[in-house]
Amino acid sequence: MYGRYTQDLGTFAKDEAARLRLQQENGEGGTPQPRRPSELLEYTQGRCAPCRVCALQCQRFLISKVGEDWVFLILLGLVMALVSWAMDFAIATCLQAQKWMYGGLDTNVLLQYLAWVTYPTVLITFSAGFTQILAPQAVGSGIPEMKTILRGVVLKEYLTLKTFVAKVIGLTCALGSGMPLGKEVRAAPGAGRAGSRRAPSSAPPLSPQGPFVHIASMCAALLSRFLSLFGGIYKNEARNIEMLAAACAVGVGCCFAAPIGGVLFSIEVTSTFFAVRNYWRGFFAATFSAFIFRVLAVWNKDEETITALFKTRFRLDFPFDLQELPAFAVIGIASGFGGALFVYLNRKIVQFMRRQKTINRFLMKKRLLFPALVTLLISTLTFPPGFGQFMAGQLTQKDTLVTLFDNQTWAKQGVSDEFEYLGILEAWRHPRSNVFVTLVVFIFMKFWMSALATTIPVPCGAFMPVFVIGAAFGRLVGESMAAWFPDGIHTDSNTYRIVPGGYAVVGAAALSGAVTHTVSTAVIVFELTGQISHILPVMIAVILANAVAQSLQPSLYDSIIRIKKLPYLPELGWGNHEKYNVRVEDIMVRDIHYVTLNCKYRDLQHVLHSTKMKSLPLVESAESMILLGSIERAQVGALLCHQLSPQRRLQALRQKALAEDGHRLSDASICFQISTEASSGAHAAPRKPLKPALKRVPS
């Protein structure tokens, strides 16, 4: 363990082998007889002895098989699918209750406003308070912490049962409030079908991708602890890291029902170096979890069959013209700037709240005041009869995405009255403005509201708000192209009209990829819509967005890591490549105090008084300087206080006194024997009284 184990281990192995050989020879002195295992001996008596032995052997076989990977991954996928489905059902119930309260008070606008504002405020306040009391580690997305844990850093209380309960309940309440937080949604059956008059389904919204990565990781950690009762392999730290990597893929895969994009996204987001041997684990668990999740939707009659969440019906024979590629490239570049601005704005809001000492001190005393105020502000601005009518305020994120991915063109030449708005599409129509104004107001308001809402101390993510904003921006570009070219772009003798829904898909993938610095959002979009007809525009836009965003700002998760000061080294951004030439010896501390194996109390006291380092290196000796490990300063102080406590000192003094008294008595007996032998020939001379061996000192 300390670099000196070779000889000791070899000697121990030889001694152990000799002992086992001798034990075997002693046991085989007579005729060798077949022996049963010791645990089977108590089952060998009685009428049902063979059945008992067979049952025990089957039990041991099953327990040995539980230790295999595929059993663990099946259990992980099943548990995550059930948790996701249960959370979706609870969130949909909360959102339906809000709609019922709002719709039942349509005769009084003031009561409608009170219901619209009070309901989310209560849920967000409860989520913040419950999380702070039970487990503050459950606040936020969870992906920055998982990036740190997968690097080998141990973060206490982040993967416990208490944090799991706080995350699930707090996240359900936060998403049930309808705030613009990280919330993935389930599309209505038939969404995106041209001319579809079908009402949106009451299917529950999906769980957030960021927090669900944390939830899946906690499930994997808890399953590992439970299964460690059956096999010791689950106590292996390296194996737990592999299972956590697979759990991150399950978290994304089951909430999007996108196993391929989920695995790729988890690799891009959480891992800097990915072990290929974990590849099949992630795909297997994510596919099984997504399958069970969609089967539960069919079983609950939310869906007719297993389909994509946002099934689109874009043209397949001619999805887009080559002359539209510059427009897709513009979406990618603009999304890169927008993603960098979102990360910058989010970080500045947090830093402003922390730097203002007066505000920070006040909010630390009134922890629930900040979430309540932010919720009150956002709910007031999205109130449908008020300012919310200019930004489709009554639509949930599910309905918003369903409408943004719609095939039809909402406006022709900027005039909105030529289009017959049906169902939830009516929210985008305003008698005093056209659809362009509504989309611009929606993008601007949702942008800063999402950046502000993600700073609330509740379990939440930021991926889905960014995804919706990107879809709205793509829809705005698509509607503009349709207005500029009302009859489509002419190609030879054929005329194909522009599909704004395809632009919305491109914008959603580009902006979410720019914020997270990932390319796999393109694959997630393909699995969400069930079509890859726009694969080329999506890839072009995502790559351009990543190129722009990475040159300006770190990813949202790296930004949160810097804010929380987690022990993680992110990748260097553009323009810092010369720092790759910096070596460790250029930045390391050379004059460092250390502890040796044979150091004395004086040396330890000198080290503790001469340095303020929290951790002290332990070396073999001052000559060899072989590093054996490290020990925390607090542990050294605790050990010294224990070893040198008054009780231990009194005990040591008593033992020393007893030892010296015994030594003095033995010397007296020897002197007595000598004097007796000497007195046989002559009289012994009178002796002086002996001085006491120990000085009397006050205790």
UniProtKB/TrEMBL annotation:
<keyword id="KW-0869">Chloride channel</keyword>
<feature type="transmembrane region" description="Helical">
    <location>
        <begin position="243"/>
        <end position="267"/>
    </location>
</feature>
<protein>
    <submittedName>
        <fullName>Chloride channel protein 2</fullName>
    </submittedName>
</protein>
<dbReference type="Pfam" id="PF00654">
    <property type="entry name" value="Voltage_CLC"/>
</dbReference>
<feature type="region of interest" description="Disordered">
    <location>
        <begin position="187"/>
        <end position="206"/>
    </location>
</feature>
<keyword id="KW-0812">Transmembrane</keyword>
<keyword id="KW-0868">Chloride</keyword>
<feature type="transmembrane region" description="Helical">
    <location>
        <begin position="325"/>
        <end position="347"/>
    </location>
</feature>
<dbReference type="GO" id="GO:0034707">
    <property type="term" value="C:chloride channel complex"/>
</dbReference>
<keyword id="KW-0677">Repeat</keyword>
<keyword id="KW-0129">CBS domain</keyword>
<keyword id="KW-0407">Ion channel</keyword>
<feature type="transmembrane region" description="Helical">
    <location>
        <begin position="535"/>
        <end position="552"/>
    </location>
</feature>
<feature type="transmembrane region" description="Helical">
    <location>
        <begin position="70"/>
        <end position="93"/>
    </location>
</feature>
<feature type="transmembrane region" description="Helical">
    <location>
        <begin position="368"/>
        <end position="387"/>
    </location>
</feature>
<feature type="transmembrane region" description="Helical">
    <location>
        <begin position="505"/>
        <end position="528"/>
    </location>
</feature>
<dbReference type="InterPro" id="IPR050970">
    <property type="entry name" value="Cl_channel_volt-gated"/>
</dbReference>
<dbReference type="InterPro" id="IPR014743">
    <property type="entry name" value="Cl-channel_core"/>
</dbReference>
<keyword id="KW-0472">Membrane</keyword>
<keyword id="KW-0813">Transport</keyword>
<feature type="transmembrane region" description="Helical">
    <location>
        <begin position="463"/>
        <end position="485"/>
    </location>
</feature>
<feature type="transmembrane region" description="Helical">
    <location>
        <begin position="212"/>
        <end position="231"/>
    </location>
</feature>
<dbReference type="InterPro" id="IPR001807">
    <property type="entry name" value="ClC"/>
</dbReference>
<keyword id="KW-0406">Ion transport</keyword>
<dbReference type="InterPro" id="IPR046342">
    <property type="entry name" value="CBS_dom_sf"/>
</dbReference>
<keyword id="KW-1133">Transmembrane helix</keyword>
<feature type="transmembrane region" description="Helical">
    <location>
        <begin position="279"/>
        <end position="299"/>
    </location>
</feature>
<feature type="transmembrane region" description="Helical">
    <location>
        <begin position="113"/>
        <end position="135"/>
    </location>
</feature>
<dbReference type="GO" id="GO:0005886">
    <property type="term" value="C:plasma membrane"/>
</dbReference>
<dbReference type="GO" id="GO:0005247">
    <property type="term" value="F:voltage-gated chloride channel activity"/>
</dbReference>
